[in-house]
Amino acid sequence: MMFLLFLLLLPSVFCLICPEGYFLVNESKCLKMVWTKMGHRDAEDTCKASGGTLVTIKNAIDNQAVYNFANQGGVDAIWIGISCFGNTSSSCFWDDASGSAVAYNNFPAGSIVAPCTAMQISNFQSLQGKWITRDCYDYPGMSMLSPMPFVCEVPPTEKPWSMAGCVNNYNRNCYVKSKDLMGTGNAVGTGTNADQTCKLVGRNLPSIHSKMEVDYIRNLYNGTNTTHVYIGGQAGTGDRFNWLDGTAWDFNYMDPLNFQKGNCLVMDVQGDGLWSQVDCSQKFEYLCKSLIITDPTPAPLTTKNPGNPKIDSAKELKLPENLLDASNCNSTLLLAPGSISSFGYPSAPSSYCTWQVRALGPYRLGIYFDFWATYGSLNISDQYGNNIGSFSGTYNRTPFPRYTPFNIATVTFEPRPKTGSGEDRGFHAVVLMI
Ligand SMILES: *[C@@H]1O[C@H](CO)[C@@H](O)[C@H](O)[C@H]1NC(C)=O
Ligand SMILES: *[C@@H]1O[C@H](CO)[C@@H](O)[C@H](O)[C@H]1NC(C)=O
Ligand SMILES: *[C@@H]1O[C@H](CO)[C@@H](O)[C@H](O)[C@H]1NC(C)=O
Ligand SMILES: *[C@@H]1O[C@H](CO)[C@@H](O)[C@H](O)[C@H]1NC(C)=O
Ligand SMILES: *[C@@H]1O[C@H](CO)[C@@H](O)[C@H](O)[C@H]1NC(C)=O
Ligand SMILES: *[C@@H]1O[C@H](CO)[C@@H](O)[C@H](O)[C@H]1NC(C)=O
After folding, report:
1. Which of 21, 320, 377, 427 registers the highest number of CB atoms within 10 A of its CB?
2. Where does the CUB domain lie (predicted)?
3. Are residues 20 and 132 part of one domain?
4. Domain assignment of residue 408, given as a range
């Protein structure tokens, strides 16, 4: 009896809870079954809308738990959150930016032949619980060729001990919009005022540590007229920014085509969520963020953000490559974020180059050309060979972006003879997942 009681109490010690519609599975994962059959891209977008991804599975216990969770109502197979860009598990990457599937995977040997992944649920050739790669069939119309139900995952969060509650509770943090903070009061402030007001209520302007957090914040402003909000970035030395709440600058989402300088940062909450430097005296709405305190005994406020254990592993994302220079020319795989440039940049381009550019499964690629002074020819195509952009014949181009419809693109560049007086200095582009 005592033993049973202990088991029942155990969960409340951690106070882990899930957002509405999600179930806490195995005391560690917040999962939601979506029965509507969708193509892979639509499934990812559905999960993204609540700050999540398709389910990620890092060990055999979780695999069994996800299998059990999905094994209801005659489901045949479900999409899971891993994308493969080659034929080995080391080229398969988790949606949540936690790295590759080398440490754990459940692919039958030699079965990695396509970019999207499903878990087999029904008994088909005894493959229950195994992972099967499939074409993503991302194009509108094509998605109906392989629709499947799927499981979404969001990070578990905690219940605040205070009954004051937390309306926007995500990944162990509470977010409050300036509009809600002061009742009907002033929703806008200068960068300095915004920071002070957040501090007055025991919060900070937000530090942002992942693409998932960017998406969560964008969704808070979906359907509003708010275009930009102050976030907690503060200019440090040189071009570096720091987070006002003292957490590490472990994720960067600066707009590569914003050349304005300033000591404060705003986030574009109606666009892709990119961050731009602004003068701190400008007035914007803002967002406050605080760690959820679950224990009423005053604990020292740590400056580390314990809600993001995944961040460190994000550094593993880049595959070892035999790079010749900073251009990434002919790299076998370039997983965003990263950059590409003509070989020899900023000197005259001296080589034909191709780049295999990829984003994690839930995202698209933003290719931001921040420098172009070349006679060369550059093409971008998606995985189905569709042209996303052809650039040649214009020596000087003002900075411009190109967005891919999916997460896979091939870029090719070929130097061409000079046809004008300008010196050929090649091109440079920043690649982000959006
Ligand atoms: C997690 O799930 C597995 C498989 O369903 C189960 O065997 C295990 O007991 C679960 N662990 C917890 C803590 O619930
Ligand atoms: C490797 O994967 C590609 C698709 O990414 C597939 O066309 C090819 O057949 C696979 N090769 C092997 C040896 O499995
Ligand atoms: C905003 O909300 C609408 C309606 O709920 C939804 O259809 C749309 O996809 C959302 N936009 C984004 C960027 O999430
Ligand atoms: C957005 O602005 C328009 C025009 O100013 C207004 O009619 C609308 O009510 C506003 N919507 C919200 C959600 O505030
Ligand atoms: C890149 O590959 C192309 C063709 O595959 C080759 O012609 C070119 O020399 C390579 N460039 C570099 C810098 O290795
Ligand atoms: C880009 O596409 C155009 C038109 O198809 C072609 O003429 C050109 O050679 C291509 N350039 C590269 C670098 O692939």
Report:
1. 427
2. 329-434
3. yes
4. 313-433
